[in-house]
Design a protein that fits this description.
single chain; about 140 residues; mainly alpha; Arc Repressor Mutant, subunit A; 2 domains
């Protein structure tokens, strides 16, 4: 193939490698971020997107996307970008309050909070409590 373009090897620093390993192996890491981390570490070992895609069982386009994002933005490029839709209606402080009550307090007369009890205590919807619990694997 005349003028075939070859990818240059992806070079990552020791600090980036440490962070990528942590994201790839941590139990509580978002599965998408763990996959992206594995893709980048594999790209550092193998230059070919098709080889990495076959090994990790994703499409070559997926490997190419995350390789490009990493090259241009490094580790922050692997994070989820804001998505379209309505803005968050629950503040960080309210999320923190739900987590604090759930993990560090017990409701009167029972061992743990029900979503209805906690929603009533904090003045939010039961669905909001359930979304927060789900987001934090509680």
């Amino acid at each position: 193939m005349q003028g075939a373009w070859r990818l240059r090897p992806l070079v990552i620093t020791e600090e980036e490698l440490r962070q990528l390993r942590e994201w790839a192996q941590a139990r509580r890491t978002n599965p998408s971020l763990a996959l992206r981390s594995r893709i980048i570490m594999a790209c550092a070992r193998d230059a070919a997107n098709t080889t990495v895609a076959r090994r990790i069982r994703v499409s070559p386009q997926t490997v190419g996307k995350w390789r490009r994002r990493f090259v241009t933005r490094r580790l922050p490029g692997l994070m989820d970008e804001p998505r379209s839709g309505a803005p968050r209606s629950i503040s960080d402080e309210l999320v923190e309050a739900v987590l604090a009550k759930t993990l560090h307090e017990s409701p009167p007369g029972t061992a743990r909070w029900s979503s209805r009890q906690l929603a009533s205590a904090l003045g939010i919807s039961q669905r909001a409590v359930l979304r927060i619990w789900h987001a934090f694997d509680l």
